[in-house]
């Protein structure tokens, strides 16, 4: 009985390994070429800046709801790119990159206020926001809260 169990286990292992092995005649999957991440225009319009591999749009002058912020980014066609709200972590990284040059951001026309992130809060109905001037991450009510908007591409 023990010999049969060992033989069966060995056989199952061999079948698993054979099915996991790459097939020699299988065609390689075709991957659509996307626009390279470094396809940033040499000179961005005033207010648009880069941080890491992302392009950041200028901060809006007016505070809006989260739904309006999402719509603003998703409907933007600026620079011929797709836009979205930045994540909380992207906002933190952005602040780390620019915290010593806030005057440069102001000179570019940035309103260094609280901006929406795309990251939901830890409690239902709230969303992470970040104060760009101070680098503080807090929460706002996702339905009634008002914050400014910056988008990333």
SSE pattern, N- to C-terminal: HEEHHHEEE
| Helicity range | 25-40%
Termini separation: 63 Å
For this structure, the quaternary state is single chain
Q: What does this molecule look like?
A:
The chain has 153 residues and is an alpha+beta fold. The strands form 2 sheets. Strands 3-4-5 form a 3-stranded antiparallel sheet, sandwiched between helices. Strands 1-2 form a two-stranded antiparallel ribbon. The chain is globular. It starts with a helix and ends in a 12-residue tail after the last strand. The N terminus is likely disordered.
Question: What is the topological layout?
Answer:
Blueprint: H1 2-20, E1 49-51, E2 54-56, H2 66-75, H3 88-98, H4 102-107, E3 114-120, E4 126-131, E5 136-141
Antiparallel strand pairs: 1-2, 3-4, 4-5
Give me some keywords for this one.
single chain, 153 residues, alpha+beta, three-stranded antiparallel sheet, 5 strands
Provide a brief overview of the structure.
Helix content is 30%, strand content 16%.
């Amino acid at each position: 009985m023990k010999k049969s169990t060992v033989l069966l286990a060995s056989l199952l292992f061999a079948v698993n390994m054979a099915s996991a092995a790459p097939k020699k005649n299988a065609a390689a999957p075709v991957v659509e070429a996307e626009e390279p991440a470094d396809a940033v225009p040499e000179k961005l319009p005033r207010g648009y800046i880069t941080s890491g591999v992302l392009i950041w749009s200028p901060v809006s002058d007016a505070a809006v709801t989260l739904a309006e912020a999402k719509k603003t980014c998703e409907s933007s066609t600026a620079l011929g790119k797709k836009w979205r709200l930045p994540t909380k972590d992207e906002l933190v990284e952005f602040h780390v990159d620019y915290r010593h040059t806030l005057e440069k951001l102001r000179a570019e026309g940035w309103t260094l206020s609280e901006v929406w992130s795309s990251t939901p809060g830890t409690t239902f109905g709230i969303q992470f926001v970040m104060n760009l001037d101070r680098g503080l991450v807090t929460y706002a009510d996702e339905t009634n809260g008002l914050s400014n908007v910056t988008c990333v591409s």
